[in-house]
């Protein structure tokens, strides 16, 4: 194999590959990226056996072939090469080395046989449809903060993507929860997605997916089966196993009887929470919200370190209410709100609060209260 490729193109492809491979693994080949050159394209394939990413790029291929080399090592080398460099990759199977040359720099990297590289088994996908990258990014970016990190409840370690009934008909919905907070995000349902099975997309896949969704107007081809999900652009394909488990009935924890309505500037609210939380103990980070007519008082009382209080002018016309929340959870939800105002719906100090972005019902957040 012998090819030449622009440094920027190579860096983008190798960066995606090296982020998928596991740094520590017992199977050496899994630390490698499979490079396959043919015609005028070269593909870079990496896997951790749960996720597989394939990135295709244009290259000047002198001699077709394939080899595998350390993904992290190749990424580090390419990252340190000068901008605009033309990089040549030459595989010598006799020496078991891949030579990387750019300008006056030459590197010879150890390779492993391409035959040893595991390729994820292809799957029969039950549902194939496409969606705009901007819509997909909104679904996953706004929900992923609520993914659970508790390994015992493995079925909460991802985002549940499924078809659901929204206020104006059927929608493509993403939900994540860790039992303390919940995010539910909707987007109009693509026609071909009607029969899609609901799947739990793992946290690592959600993080890798972000790199495919740079261009809001790009069409992303999505394929879904009971065991796998695939997201693809013309250049990159990301295939992942889904979490084998049943996502809980999240609709039961979304309150429907909350009538006490607080409307507040989302940015002012987030800054005020952040300020008063400075004195709270890191373990609980509890912030008390005291609601009175058109006034919200945020207070923290930390016996070890001190107290803090801040008032905000808000729109609120119900009876006085005192309720406590984890400051981190409030900040995470406030940071998701794109619109100017956040709307909180309360019932009592012991029941969860519902949060929306202004009048937009397509993004709903739930946060459980704390005793303060």
UniProtKB/TrEMBL annotation:
It holds the Pfam family DNA_pol3_beta_3. The keyword Transferase applies. It comes from the Bacteria. Its main location: cytoplasm. It is found in: Cytoplasm. GO terms for molecular function: DNA-directed DNA polymerase activity. Forms a ring-shaped head-to-tail homodimer around DNA. This is Beta sliding clamp. The lineage of its organism: Bacteria, Pseudomonadati, Pseudomonadota, Alphaproteobacteria, Rhodobacterales.
């Amino acid at each position: 194999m012998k090819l030449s490729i622009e440094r920027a193109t190579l860096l983008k492809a190798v960066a995606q590959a090296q982020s998928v491979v596991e740094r520590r693994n017992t199977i050496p080949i899994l630390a490698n990226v499979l490079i396959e050159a043919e015609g005028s394209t070269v593909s870079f394939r990496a896997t951790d056996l749960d996720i597989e990413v394939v990135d295709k790029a244009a290259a000047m291929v002198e001699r077709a072939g394939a080899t595998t080399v350390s993904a992290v090592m190749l990424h580090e080398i390419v990252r340190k090469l000068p901008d605009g460099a033309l990089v040549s990759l030459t595989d010598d199977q006799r020496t078991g080395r891949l030579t990387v040359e750019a300008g006056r720099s030459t590197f010879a990297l150890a390779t492993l046989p391409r035959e040893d590289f595991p390729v994820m088994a292809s799957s029969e996908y039950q549902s194939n449809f496409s969606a705009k990258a901007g819509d997909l990014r909104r679904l996953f970016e706004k929900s992923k903060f609520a993914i659970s990190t508790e390994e015992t409840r493995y079925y909460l370690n991802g985002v549940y993507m499924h078809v659901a009934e929204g206020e104006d008909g059927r929608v493509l919905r993403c939900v994540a929860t860790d039992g303390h907070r919940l995010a539910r995000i909707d987007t109009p349902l693509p026609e071909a997605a009607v029969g899609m099975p609901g799947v739990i997309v793992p946290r690592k896949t959600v993080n890798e997916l972000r790199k495919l969704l740079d261009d809001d107007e790009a069409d992303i081809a999505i394929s879904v089966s009971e065991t796998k999900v695939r997201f693809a652009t013309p250049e990159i394909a990301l295939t992942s196993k889904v979490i084998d488990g049943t996502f809980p009935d999240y609709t039961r924890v979304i309150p429907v009887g909350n009538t006490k309505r607080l409307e507040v500037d989302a940015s002012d609210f987030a800054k005020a929470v952040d300020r008063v939380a400075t004195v709270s103990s890191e373990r609980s980070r509890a912030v008390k919200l005291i609601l009175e007519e058109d006034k919200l008082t945020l207070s923290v009382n930390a016996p070890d370190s001190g107290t803090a209080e801040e008032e905000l002018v808000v729109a609120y016309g119900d009876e006085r209410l005192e309720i406590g929340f984890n400051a981190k959870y409030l900040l995470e939800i406030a940071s998701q709100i794109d619109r100017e105002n956040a709307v909180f719906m309360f019932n009592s100090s012991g029941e969860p609060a519902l949060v929306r972005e202004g009048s937009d019902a397509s993004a709903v957040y739930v946060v459980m209260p704390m005793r303060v």
